[in-house]
């Protein structure tokens, strides 16, 4: 899914497709002549072939969706772990918003809303969460999330 791909790895055609779908990528183009040393001398990467340098913008990353426990017992375990997970996440550098709310209508469903300053802050959060008690305990629980990169307010 293009919302999970690093901007520098996308072709312009794919980026246009992402923008048409209202998803995440915003690129800034600058004139450039670069070579890709990792592929050997003289190899020109996409940006050099097309006379531009692709730079990911400093877009805010948001995540919205649901964590869906498979049983009430699993949902209760999630609820027990949430206070620490929320506290630790809100204390992370770059966390702008983090909310997880359990549904009254369906107690196995949790609405999740996250916002991070930029992709680096979001990636740091995901790494920290995956290595935590929360991450290890909830690893197999289904999630239905949409991740977007959006222009920052006022910019």
Automatic annotation (TrEMBL):
Q: Which Gene3D superfamilies does this UniProt record tie to the protein?
A: 3.30.70.100
Q: Which residues form the ABM domain?
A: 74-130
InterPro entries cross-referenced by the UniProt entry: ABM_dom (IPR007138), Dimeric_a/b-barrel (IPR011008)
Its recorded name reads ABM domain-containing protein
- Recall the taxonomic lineage recorded for the source organism: Bacteria, Pseudomonadati, Pseudomonadota, Alphaproteobacteria, Rhodobacterales
């Amino acid at each position: 899914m293009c919302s999970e791909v690093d901007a520098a790895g996308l072709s312009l055609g794919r980026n246009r497709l992402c923008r048409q779908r209202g998803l995440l990528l915003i690129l800034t183009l600058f004139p450039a002549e670069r070579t890709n040393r990792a592929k050997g001398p003289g190899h020109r990467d996409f940006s050099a072939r097309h006379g531009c340098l692709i730079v990911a913008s400093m877009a805010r990353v948001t995540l919205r969706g649901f964590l869906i426990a498979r049983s009430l017992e699993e949902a209760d375990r999630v609820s027990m772990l949430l206070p620490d997970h929320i506290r630790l996440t809100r204390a992370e550098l770059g966390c702008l918003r983090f909310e997880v709310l359990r549904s009254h209508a369906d107690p196995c469903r949790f609405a999740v809303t996250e916002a991070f300053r930029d992709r680096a802050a979001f990636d740091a959060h995901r790494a920290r969460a995956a290595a935590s008690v929360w991450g290890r305990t909830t690893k197999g629980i289904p999630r239905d999330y949409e991740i977007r990169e959006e222009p920052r307010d006022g910019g």
